[in-house]
Amino acid sequence: MDLLRSLPLGLYLEQPQTWLHKIDPRVKFAWLMSFLTSYVLANNFWRVLLVVMLIITTLFAKIPRRVWRQQMGWLLMLSFFVLAIAAISPDAMGINYQPRLPANEQILTQPANSNNVAPEETSNGQKYSYVLFHKGPVRVTRRSLDLGISLSSIIFTVIYSTNLYLLTTAPEEITSGIESLMQPLRRLKLPVTEITLTLTLSLRFIPLVLEEVQNLFRSVMTRAINWKKLGLKGAFKVWMTVAERLLDNLLLRAEQMANAMMVRGFTSPNEHRVQWHDLRLKALDWVAIATLILFWGIRLAVGTKV
Questions:
Q1: Rounded to an integer, what distance in angstroms lies between the CA atom of residue 68 and that of residue 60?
Q2: What does the pLDDT look like over 92-120, one tens digit per residue?
Q3: Any transmembrane segments, and where (predicted)?
Q4: Cα separation of 229 and 2, whole Å?
């Protein structure tokens, strides 16, 4: 089991360099925020369209298949299970679903149906049914299906858009872009440099956490522990010991990182600033900005929830 390959959360893809890597981190951050906010008060058509856009972007960017195949597969499977569970779950309406026409339609009088349109039909002649599928204990209604599509698409969009951003943007670029965007907050005397430095360290710490979890998991598996003889209580003690060891290792790594920074003189971020990247908008960035404006235009035109 290789967590660094099977679960590449927060890891940066150094090679190959795709066109997504070359876009300014501030522009990519604006795209990320657009994906994370545009589904608010949006219809399901737009939410499903966001999922399709993310998949097409991954394929069009020519990111190696080994990088995104397993993670996208797990996310799609998770979204499908969320959709299935939400669709067959009660929709919380708290009503009984009964046909609007009585069993004997002959008792209907002409004045009650003066428009010559059956109560179960819409204005265009199509039959309407709130319950889409009902067989035994399984019942799918329009509201439950709508909730299922909404939840599953939001889960995929939030997780995969964030991972795609981290995959194609180096941690130093992320912090440089966020620091550039947060410059107006300096007037409010907010510690912008300290915030971005903390963000840089946290992004660098994610691979270390995955590496420690992977090493401890392998150490447990190589000892060939007989879990049946241990029982539930014994297994709980083993995993508690592993969790305690993981915490000790992570604290040791954090202390080593802090000592390395202090030795190099990074005692105050305002005095020891390192300019990681020269942020300048290029032709590809302006194309991405124009596309983002088109993105929000389409969102307002066809994605607004009625």
A1: 13
A2: 655 555 556 555 555 555 454 444 444 45
A3: 44-61, 73-90, 147-167, 283-302
A4: 28
Torsion of CA 200, 205, 207, 209, to 10 degrees: -160
Q: How far apart are CA 87 and CA 91, in angstroms?
A: 8
How many other C-beta atoms are found inside a 10 Å radius of the C-beta of residue 263? Answer: 8
The contacts of residue 91 (CB under 8 Å, 6+ apart) are: 141, 143, 144, 147
Q: Give the C-alpha separation, 213 to 266, whole Å.
A: 29
| CB-based contact 214:1 (threshold 8 Å) | yes
Judge whether residue 271 has pLDDT over 80: no
- Which of 14, 44, 40 has its CA nearest to residue 144? 44
Q: Tokens 């035994």 sit at which residue?
A: 136
SS3 141: strand
* Distance (Å, whole) CA 174 – CA 29: 8
Nearest to 10 by CA among 184, 178, 210, 247: 210
| Lowest pLDDT segment from 56-60, 228-232, 286-290 | 228-232
Letter string b/e over residues 166-184, b meaning 16 or more CB atoms within 10 A of that residue's CB: bbbbbbbbbbbbbbbeeee
Angle of helix 25-37 relative to helix 283-302, nearest 10 degrees? 10
Run of H or E residues at 31: helix 25-37
Q: What is the pLDDT of residues 252-269, one digit of tens each?
A: 888 887 787 777 666 665
The closest alpha carbon to 215, from 252, 168, 259, belongs to: 252
Residues 26 and 180: their CA atoms lie apart, in Å, by 8
Q: Which of 80, 76, 73, 79 is nearest to 6 (CA)?
A: 73
Strand ranges (E), 82-141:
131-135, 138-141
What token pair was written down for 193? Answer: 């440099």
Tokens 């501030």 correspond to what residue?
26
CA 209 from centroid of its chain's CA atoms: 20
DSSP one-letter code for 92: S
